[in-house]
Each structure stands twice: as C-alpha cells, then as structure tokens.
Design goal:
Strand content: 15-25%
CATH class of the largest domain: Alpha Beta
Helix content: 25-40%
Structural class: alpha+beta
Distance between the termini: 30 Å
Number of strands: 23
Largest sheet: 5 strands, mixed
Strand order of the largest sheet: 2-9-6-7-4
CATH topology of the largest domain: Adenine-n6-DNA-methyltransferase TaqI, Chain A, domain 2
Radius of gyration: 22 Å
Number of helices: 12
CATH superfamily of the largest domain: DNA methylase specificity domains
C-alpha cells in the first residue's frame, strides 16, 4: 500500500480493525463482449456501466443488455456484489440486485458474507470515493487499477454491528433520496417535453433536416494535464470529467493547473458553453453558466459552442442526453481500456435541426425549471452534509 494510502488510514480513529478489500472479498473487473458480434447483445442479462451507478442503492436493470452468448465471453457477478466505478467517475457505486455483467470501468466486490454484510460494505466503499480521487494518477481519465483498489481498507466491526450501521444509514439515506427524487421528477418532465417537441434525435421521427455536428458548432478538446502544468506561474481552476454531471456541475473539488496567455484565450470557458465528457460516461454534459469566474477545462472534456442562429445550448445538451441513453453514440465510441469519443467522431455526429424558434421555446421552459432545480439542489446539499455527518459518526461508533 502506498504511503499516501497509509497516511489516510492512520487519520481514521477507529476502534475496529482496518482490513483490505482483498482480504474480505473477491474483486472482479468487468469486460465488454465483442461488439462485432451483434448476438452478444439484446438479451435478458443486465450489462451495467457507470451510467447505472450512483442513482439508487440497488441496480436491477440497465440500458444495455447481453445474451447468454455474450455472458459466456465475460464473468457475471452475483446478486449483492458491490459495483464500484474505477475508471472515469471514480467511486460511483451500487449493489447488484440480481446477477449482472459489467464493463471494464467497474470493479465488482463480492464480499465474503461471513465477514461483511453487503449493505454495510456498500456504505463503507462509498466512503472511499475522495481517497480514490486523490490516488488516481494525472491522466486524461481518472483510473484506479485493480491492485491499488484491492489494497484500500475499510473498518470491520462485528457482523451485528455492521447491520446496525447499515440500518442507521438506510434511514438517513431515505431522507436524502426524497430530495433527489424531486430533482429527478423535474429532469424527467423536461426530457418528456423535449421528446414531445422534437422527437428522439436518434431516429428523428419528425423528419427534421439533419447535418453533421461539426457544421453547426465550434468544438475544442481541453488542455492536456501534465506535471509541468501543475507547477507553473499562472495556476487556474479547471474542470475535469468528474466535475461534469448531466445538466449540472460538481464544483466542490476544482483543481488548478498552469495556463499561459495563449492557452487562457483558447481554453477559457464562456457563458453558454457546453462541456461534454470525452471518456468514461461518454456524452455526459452540462451548460456552463459562468458558475465560477475565470475557469478552464482539461482534455477529458470537449467544449462546444453552438451557432446560435441554428442551435440553442439547451437543445444540444438534451440531444447528447438522448444520444447517450438510446445508443446514438455507440458507433462513434471507441473502447480500448475505457470508452471515449474523439474530436473527429464528435464532429461527425448527425444532429437533427428543428426550427430555432421552437428550440427557443424549449429554452425558456428549461431555464424556468433550472431555477427550481437549483433551489432543490441547494436543499440537497444541506441534506447531503447531514448524511455525511451521520455517516462519519456511525463509522466512528459515535451513534
């Protein structure tokens, strides 16, 4: 285990023993069946990717499924396995509600249930997210390799105590999820309105004129992260893949790197820019509203500026959501270690172009709901802080 990891664990004033993940479980790294064989996909077996993690404690279904043939090419993991994203959106978790397959971004932790109660293990692994982020090397997409992940430690009280902790956190989490549900309902409403107004952009049932995305937007990948950029004379805050969520940004842990005058002009964010994830959860995006002054972005993100005579930012954002969730990006995404969308493939995406007046009507509605969602998110932040406080006290045996 690295010195950093040891130092982090020494900070935990626990009366319970700390044990490595590997010592109390079997860890299975996911794999994607060959996409060249179409009969690997479309069956009844959930094929989980990071898109399905972090929403609910349990995952029972997924947007993509595999057949029995596809399952033979990978290793399925059993019910109650804790799924942890270790490439891209580090630390996103869920519990397998049934037997599932996962892609290579996910490590599945199959706990020895004579030692670890799965729901307790889920909460314990959730607490490792910030540590995982700090340990990830400075690459375009954050990665924790399997051996480093297995070496991470969790506290191990007796099983009965684990069940008590899980029950306390379940109650606190239920309150938090009610607020999350209010935000989701607003999101779902807007997405329903989008489909009603414009149709599915993948199939284009309304017959809008279609063009290449590169013809109607200006796009630019961000600055490559390097050790030299970390110690420059002009440190600036920048966005990473992990900071971009669907329709919103997580700005709690912005990092800094050096940008010279040429780079500042090239990579500075402007109001209305759309930040699109190049890797990990490909296509995940949000509209920049000058959330932070003088902010930039790194190479894990595409910055898109639409031609406002043709497209609105709100329409483009929702276009990417439906393209991502209905398979519209699958032919443009390359998969080696992880999924990614190159600058060339981005420009070649086909986008329907509805009348801009209709897009503007949607934008007005979207912005009114954006204010409502912002208020709910502020309330959720307060609830999250209370949940984290309860979690800290529970794992420290103060409750």
């Amino acid at each position: 285990m690295s010195d950093i990891m040891q130092a982090e664990m020494k900070k935990k004033a626990q009366k319970w023993p700390m044990v490595s993940i590997k010592s109390v479980s079997t860890v299975v790294t996911g794999k994607t069946p060959s996409k060249k064989e179409a009969d690997n996909f479309g069956g009844d077996i959930p094929f989980v990717t990071p898109v399905e993690l972090g929403k609910e404690p349990y995952v029972y279904s997924s947007s993509q499924t595999i057949t029995k043939k596809g399952a033979k090419a990978i290793k399925l993991v059993p019910k109650n396995s804790v799924l942890v994203c270790c490439i891209g959106s580090l630390g996103k978790t869920a519990i397998a509600g049934c037997e599932v397959g996962t892609n290579q971004q996910i490590n599945s932790v199959i706990f020895d249930e004579s030692k670890v109660f799965p729901k307790y293990g889920y909460y314990a692994l959730n607490r490792l997210k910030s540590l995982m982020v700090s340990l990830a090397p400075s690459t375009t997409v954050a990665i924790i390799n399997k051996s480093n992940f297995e070496a991470l430690e969790i506290p191990l009280p007796l099983l009965e105590e684990q069940k008590r902790i899980a029950a306390i956190l379940d109650k606190a989490d239920a309150i938090r999820r009610k607020r999350q549900q209010a935000i989701k309902l607003a999101d779902d409403f807007l997405r329903s309105v989008f489909l009603d107004m414009f149709g599915d952009p993948v199939t284009n049932p309304k017959g809008w004129e279609v063009t290449l995305l590169g013809n109607v937007v200006e796009s630019q990948l961000g600055k490559m992260l390097s050790q030299k950029a970390k110690v420059g004379n002009s440190p600036k805050k920048y966005l990473r893949n992990a900071n971009v969520r669907w329709r919103r940004f997580d700005l709690h842990n912005l990092l800094k790197m050096d940008f010279d005058s040429r780079e500042m002009k090239k990579f500075k964010l402007k109001n209305g820019d759309i930040l699109v994830c190049e890797g990990g959860d490909v296509g995940r995006c949000s509209i920049w509203r000058d959330n932070v002054s003088d902010c930039y972005y790194q190479k894990a993100l595409h910055r898109i500026r639409p031609d406002l005579k043709v497209l609105t930012p709100e329409y483009v954002q929702e276009y990417f959501y439906w393209m991502s969730n209905r398979g519209g990006l699958s032919d443009s995404v390359s998969e080696v270690t992880f999924s990614h969308l190159t600058a060339e493939k981005l420009k070649e995406l086909r986008i329907p172009i509805p009348p801009v007046a209709l897009q503007n009507k949607f934008s007005v509605l979207y912005k009114s709901f954006e204010l409502l969602v912002s208020k709910n998110e502020l309330a959720l932040q307060i609830v999250d802080e209370k949940f984290n406080s309860i979690s800290q006290k529970t794992f420290s045996d103060e409750l």
